[in-house]
Design brief:
Two copies of one chain form a homodimer. Helix content of chain A is 43%, strand content 17%. Chain A has 208 residues and is α/β, with parallel strands linked by helices. In chain A, the strands form three sheets. The first copy, chain A, has a six-stranded parallel sheet, sandwiched between helices. In chain A, strands 1-2 form a two-stranded antiparallel sheet. The first copy, chain A, has a two-stranded antiparallel ribbon with strand order 5-6. Chains A and B meet through α1, α5, α6, β9 and α9 of A and α1, α5, α6, β9 and α9 of B. Chain A binds a DNA duplex (30 and 30 nucleotides) through residues 3, 5, 7-8, 31-33, 41-45, 47-48, 50-51, 55-63.
DNA sequence: ACTAGCTTGTGAAGAAATTCACAAGCTCCC
DNA sequence: GGGAGCTTGTGAATTTCTTCACAAGCTAGT
């Protein structure tokens, strides 16, 4: 199968968001044009994105909302639930642990870790914060499919190396630092300063 | 001037991160190859990225770390400080308000808003949480250059419309919903579910 | 059963981003 | 002063992504 562009995957997530909203409202049918308008793209792009994975519509009619929704969920790997652990029980880690939006899409936080003795043992979102020293064994035991990192930038690479060594294959980092992982590990980084910088760049270079 | 690709801006942020680290360590000189290796790209890409804005290196020698660093800061609009307000003093909003990483790059949180009476008036990161009813006037008065949104998805578009109406030109949203703004307003959205979905997509479609 | 009116799916064209490859230019050393 | 050894800056080639444009296919109405 052809390599799928990252931008395609991002758009699929966006389409899915609309489909789920439409589903709740009881809408039965939609078109590539609807999805395009809502998602800020073109209908050709929508159809091309979907065409990489199959053909889900009916010509002349459009797409069945529940069908397409279910197909995209399957494509994105949301046909099952995923166990997530959060490493770093600071401000952002705590906020994420309590964030309800994850569960909606099948992401279940089943572990929270911190290396600060003061936090270990405390309760967070129905879980007891564990010591980071037990993280390696828990990852190796296959307790989690995804590791979310909310540790200070100085520790981030160490934690990455630890969990990768234990067999982790997917990491989402909120640490504002560039991390390296082997090629067979998926890493995504959310860097808030970087997002703000994209804004200031645009503001500063607005009219060129 | 030619339109600059978003990917170029993102890479400039990454280069800047390394340059600042190098600066702290007292490194005086670097090369496109160094920057490429650290940032996971190629030296040609680094040079091409920089070439859009000028020519900052010396052939045979490389780049002066402090010089290049300062040039990139200028390009990204970081040569000044920016006033930021946070709308939504929930878990994520509070975490961001207290996040030190912003100040390092010249982003100063000078206002926090919430529409929940219970939160209005409380203290957060040295600021008093204000009522969202005063947000429109404060934005119109030019108090903020950037609005950060950490409100529930249902309210996000309303707040966007409000601040855009008041003249806001740059918005960073953490609400997991697609938002629309006029063409002259910069909007970026950080959607954590979407990041996780990119991971599960990769995990699910790993070996095709 | 046929026509009118949609919307999909997809090769082909076009645009954009990345990589290649090399001349230009700087420094050091003899 | 001139050659050796680097690294930059940048057109050109290549690859990747998006848009175009239209045949294929479905439905409803007559």
């Amino acid at each position: 199968m052809k390599r799928i562009a990252e931008s395609t995957v991002r758009r699929l997530s966006i389409y899915l968001g609309f489909l789920e909203k439409a589903e709740q409202r009881g809408v039965l049918t939609t078109s590539s044009d609807d999805l395009a308008k809502l998602g800020g793209t073109t209908s050709a792009q929508v159809r091309k994105d979907l065409s990489f994975f199959g053909s889900f519509g009916k010509r002349g009619l459009g797409y069945s909302v529940p069908e397409l929704s279910s197909h995209i969920r399957e494509i994105l790997g949301l046909g099952r639930s995923w166990n997530v652990c959060i490493v770093g029980a600071g401000k952002i880690g705590s906020a994420l642990a309590q964030y309800a939006g994850f569960a909606d899409r099948g992401f279940i936080v089943t572990g929270v870790y911190d290396s600060d003795r003061a936090r270990v043992g405390s309760r967070l979102a129905g879980l007891t914060v564990r010591d980071t020293t037990s993280l390696e064994a828990d990852v190796a035991a296959g307790e989690y499919e995804i590791v979310v990192l909310t540790v200070p930038p100085g520790n981030a690479q160490d934690v990455v190396d630890l969990v990768v060594g234990a067999g982790a294959k997917a990491i989402l980092s909120f640490a504002p630092t560039q991390l390296t992982v082997p090629a067979d590990v998926e890493l995504r980084t959310v860097n808030m300063a970087m997002e703000l910088e994209a804004l200031t760049f645009a503001l500063t270079n607005r009219d060129r």
